[in-house]
Input
Amino acid sequence: MTLSLSRIRAVNAVAAGGSYAAAARALKISQPAVARHVKDLEAEFGVRLFDRKNGILSPTPLCNELCDVAERMAEAERAATRLLTRHNTLLNGRLKIGLGNSMPGMALIAQFLKRHPGIEIAVETGSHERITRAVLTRDVDIGVLPDVPADGRFRRALLARQNVVAIVHPDSPLSRETAVTCERLMAEPLIFRTKGSSTQRVVDKAFRSAGFEPSPLLTLDTRDAVYEAVVNGLGVGFMWRFGTGRTDVVHRVAVSDMQRQYEEVVFSLGDERSMLFDVFFSAVDSFRTEADALLDH
Output
């Protein structure tokens, strides 16, 4: 027994239109095809779906129940169509963006939404490792991270260049310094990030290259937690220079052993191609051009 979607559509159209002819016009198929769908379904399942009264096909109680199912199936079909097309429309499209740092990704999203307010953006934040994995598993559409390794699977666009800095409380003597060394930082209580953080990879490499193996006072799992620990005077933390737009208490201090500039990139899987992805990547180019112009002035 075959219960295909086309047969269900035919039954529902006949019930709505009262005849094979009306159903055929609604479905844009031939009248014999509609009649065959209905009669074959009745024959295969041994049921009666319509009674003819005064030249009109009236649905039986069983047919009415079947039509209720058909309406739910039609709505599911429409939902599936919306799901499949939302990545390729600027009217009601949707993108899920994964951010390792709030900035400059949030600034990029803000600029993008000003130009394309009809697009829905969902944001997920997490460590470098988590966001990279989310892009690879398609849990997010596009990632924004620093120091993304060259990988042929990714479509990439440069967003900004930045380095890691120390963040200190204004009461700390370090707040009056323009730059410090890893050796000087060894005398301070240090606040580190957990494994998987791109910031922590840079910090670990810098201390190792300088010949030190620090033991942190605290190891925290998010940038915001590190930031709040510094705000509360618990020690010295580290972050990407433009990792947040906050300009409150905390001071950013350059670390001479961490001067290397890393690229913050926007990336997606290379086989994800649609109008919506293309427009977002175009926004990256515009954002970088405007940022460069501001720096030049």
User: Anything to note?
Assistant: The CA atoms of residues 72 and 267 lie 38 Å apart. The chain is about 45% helix and 20% strand. The mean pLDDT is 89.
